[in-house]
Design a protein that fits this description.
Structural class of chain B: alpha+beta
Largest sheet of chain B: 4 strands, antiparallel
Strand content of chain B: 5-15%
Largest sheet of chain A: none
Oligomer: heterodimer
Helix content of chain A: over 70%
Largest interface: A-B, 11 and 12 residues
CATH class of the largest domain in chain B: Alpha Beta
Number of strands of chain B: 4
Distance between the termini of chain B: 13 Å
Strand order of the largest sheet of chain B: 2-3-1-4
Order of helices and strands of chain B: HEHEHHHEHE
Number of domains of chain A: 1
Chain lengths: 392, 186
C-alpha cells in the first residue's frame, strides 16, 4: 500500500498553469481580435457550467453511494470529493461572468424595455433580483453540503468514529434531494432561459442526464490519470467495470431523454416548440448529428461487451469521446440562442477557453487530492471495497 | 433423498453415477473447493441455496454465452421492426399522419426499441431453458432436498467403469476437504 498521498509535482502543476495561460491568452486575444462579446460570454458560460456540472456529479456520486452504503465505491471516493471542490470556484466564475455584463449579453429576458407579451408573462420568475437570489441559494446549498461531506469524510478517516459516517449519510441524503430540485431549476435559469420564449418540461432532466454522463466520464479519466502516475493501485478491474457500466447506462439514459424530448416536439409540430430544433437543425446540423453519434452510439456499441468495460483500452477513449460529446451537447444548447447561427462557430476561442477551464479544473482537483490520503483506511466499507467482485 | 433416479438415467447420461457431499457453510465450501482443486479433484457442479461470489473462478466455469444470444436477437429484432415499418409505411400501405413524410425515422424508433428488447428478452429466456434442458413438465432432478434450503451440495462425476479404489480415493479427498454426508449415487 504505497503512494497513499497524492503529491502534486512541479511538472504537473506547470502543465495545468500552461493550460490556464492558454485559456487566458485566447480569452484576451479573442477580445482584442474583435470576436463578438456575446460569443465570448456564451463560451465562458458554457465552460463554467460544464465543469460546475462535473463537480456536482462528483459529489452526487459520493453522496448516492454513501446513502446506498455501497462497498466498492469507497476505493474511488476521494476522486469524487476532489471533483466537488471545483463547485465554489465555478460559482465565483459564474457570478463574475453575470455581474460583469454577461447576463445582458446572454439572456434576452434581462432587457426589460423590450419584453414582448410572452416574456412579460414570465417576469414573475425571470427577473434579475430573483435570478440572483436563486443563484445564491443554489451555491449556498451546494458549497456548504460539499464542505460538510468532505469535512466529515476526512474526519472519518483521521478519527475513525462511526459518528462521522452517520453524519456523512445525513448530509449525502440532503444533497441528493436538493440536487434533484436545484439541478432542474438551475438548468432552467442558466440554460433554458437563453431561449426564453421556448420551454420544455423535460429540459431539466435532460440536462441532468447529460451532467451524469459527462461527470462519470471525467471521473474515469481522472482515475486513469492517477493510475498512470502510479497511484490508486488498490482500484482493480472490478471497480473500473462498475464505472464503465455507469458510463454505458447514463449514456443510454441521456439518449432516451434526448429522444423523448425530440419526438414529442417533432410529432406535435407546434411552431413555437419546433423553432428550437429548427434553429439547431438549420445552422448546427453537423453538431446535431455528431452529438448523437458521440454520446449514444459510441458508448452504446463501444462499451457493450464485458471486457471493454474492465480496462483502459476501450473505456478511456470512450470516456474522452463522451467528455467531448457532452461539451458539444451543451454547445448546441447554449450557442444557437446566445450567439445565433450566423456568428457562432467552433474555432480558436472555443477550444482555447475550454483548455483553460480544463487546466483550472485539473489544478483544483489535483490540489484537493493532495489534502487527504487517497486510500480511506478508516472507512467502514474499506475492506469490503477490496473484496469486491462483479459478475456481469 | 433422491427421487426417480432410475428414470433420469436415460435423460442425463452424463450424470448417471456420481458422488455427492455437502457443506453447511459458504466459507467452508469455498475453502474445501480450493483444497479439492489443489489435489486435482474435478468437481462437476455445486448446488447452492444462493449465489456464491467467486465460485465460478474456483470451478473454472466459463462465462455464459447468453449475452451473445441477447445481442444477436436484439439486432434481429431491431432490423425486423425497422424494416417492417419502413416497408409498411412506404410501399405496402402509405398513410399520411399529420403531414409527415412516409419514411419518417423518428416515428419508427419507439417500436424498433420495443421489439429489440422483446426479441432479446425472449431469445435469452428460451436459450436459457434449452441449454439447461428445462421445459414445463420436466421432472425435477433432486440431488439433495436441502440444497435449496441450507446445504451447499458438491457433485463429483464418476465414470461407469471406474474402480472401487478410485471412488474411495475421491471420497477420501472430499472428507479431507471437510465435506459431510458423502454418498455414491448411481
Amino acid at each position: 500500500m504505497e503512494n497513499q498521498t497524492f503529491i502534486l509535482t512541479k511538472k504537473l502543476s506547470t502543465i495545468t498553469f500552461v493550460m490556464i495561460a492558454i485559456g487566458l491568452l485566447t480569452l484576451g486575444a479573442s477580445y482584442f481580435a474583435g470576436v463578438g462579446l456575446d460569443r465570448i460570454a456564451a463560451n465562458l458560460l458554457l465552460n463554467t457550467y460544464y465543469f460546475l456540472a462535473i463537480g456536482l456529479i462528483g459529489l452526487f456520486i459520493v453522496a448516492v453511494h454513501t446513502i446506498a452504503e455501497s462497498g466498492w465505491h469507497t476505493s474511488i471516493q476521494r476522486i469524487g470529493e476532489a471533483m466537488s471542490t471545483f463547485i465554489p470556484v465555478a460559482g465565483l466564475l459564474l457570478f463574475l461572468l453575470f455581474v460583469s455584463g454577461g447576463l445582458h449579453l446572454i439572456y434576452d429576458w434581462t432587457h426589460k424595455d423590450h419584453l414582448d407579451e410572452i416574456l412579460l408573462k414570465k417576469v414573475a420568475y425571470l427577473n434579475e433580483p430573483f435570478f440572483y437570489i436563486r443563484f445564491l441559494v443554489y451555491f449556498i446549498i451546494w458549497i456548504s453540503l460539499a464542505y460538510f461531506i468532505r469535512k466529515n469524510s476526512k474526519q472519518l478517516d483521521q478519527i475513525g468514529d462511526l459518528k462521522y459516517f452517520r453524519k456523512l449519510r445525513i448530509f449525502s441524503a440532503i444533497f441528493v434531494v436538493t440536487l434533484a430540485l436545484t439541478s432542474v431549476t438551475s438548468a432552467w435559469d442558466w440554460l433554458m432561459s437563453i431561449d426564453a420564449h421556448w420551454f420544455s418540461t423535460l429540459y431539466g432532466w435532460y440536462v441532468f442526464s447529460s451532467m451524469l454522463a459527462s461527470g462519470t466520464a471525467v471521473l474515469i479519466i481522472i482515475l486513469f490519470m492517477l493510475k498512470q502516475m502510479g497511484y490508486m493501485d488498490h482500484v482493480n478491474h472490478e471497480h473500473i467495470h462498475d464505472l464503465g457500466k455507469y458510463l454505458f447506462g447514463f449514456s443510454i439514459f441521456w439518449a432516451y431523454l434526448w429522444f423523448s424530448q425530440y419526438m414529442l416536439i417533432w410529432y406535435a409540430n407546434i411552431p413555437e416548440e419546433t423553432i428550437y430544433f429548427y434553429e439547431r437543425h438549420k445552422h448546427f446540423s453537423t453538431i446535431f448529428y455528431v452529438n448523437l453519434i458521440l454520446n449514444f452510439l459510441v458508448p452504446f456499441l463501444g462499451l457493450m461487451t464485458r471486457n471493454s468495460k474492465r480496462g483502459s483500452l476501450i473505456l478511456l477513449p470512450v470516456a474522452l469521446i463522451v467528455f467531448i460529446g457532452h461539451w458539444l451537447d451543451l454547445y448546441q444548447l447554449i450557442m444557437p440562442g446566445a450567439v445565433g447561427g450566423e456568428k457562432a462557430g467552433i474555432g480558436l476561442p472555443e477550444i482555447g477557453i475550454t483548455i483553460g477551464y480544463a487546466g483550472l479544473f485539473l489544478f483544483v482537483v489535483f490540489r484537493s487530492l493532495t489534502k487527504a490520503p487517497l486510500v480511506p483506511k478508516n472507512h467502514p466499507f474499506f475492506k469490503e471495497s477490496f473484496e469486491y467482485h462483479t459478475q456481469y | 433423498m433422491y427421487l426417480n433416479l432410475q428414470e433420469k438415467k436415460q435423460k442425463l447420461p452424463d450424470m448417471n453415477k456420481y458422488i455427492t457431499a455437502y457443506y453447511m457453510d459458504e466459507e467452508d465450501l469455498m475453502k474445501g473447493l480450493r483444497q479439492m482443486k489443489a489435489k486435482g479433484l474435478k468437481v462437476s457442479d455445486v448446488l447452492t441455496p444462493f449465489p456464491v461470489h467467486g465460485i465460478d473462478k474456483v470451478l473454472e466455469i466459463p462465462r455464459s454465452r447468453l449475452t451473445r444470444v441477447g445481442f444477436i436477437a436484439g439486432a434481429v429484432g431491431a432490423a425486423v421492426a425497422f424494416g417492417f415499418q419502413a416497408w409498411v409505411f412506404t410501399i405496402d400501405y402509405p398513410l399520411n399522419f399529420g403531414g409527415k413524410p412516409f419514411f419518417s425515422v423518428p416515428s419508427f424508433i419507439p417500436v424498433t426499441f420495443e421489439l429489440t428488447v422483446l426479441f432479446a428478452a425472449f431469445a435469452m429466456v428460451i436459450a436459457l431453458l434449452i441449454t439447461n434442458k428445462l421445459s414445463p413438465g420436466t421432472k425435477p432432478l433432486i440431488h439433495d432436498e436441502r440444497c435449496t434450503d441450507d446445504r451447499f451440495l458438491v457433485l463429483v462425476k464418476v465414470d461407469d467403469d471406474s474402480s472401487d479404489e478410485s471412488i474411495s480415493q475421491i471420497k477420501l479427498t472430499l472428507a479431507e476437504a471437510g465435506a459431510e454426508g458423502i454418498l455414491l449415487k448411481a
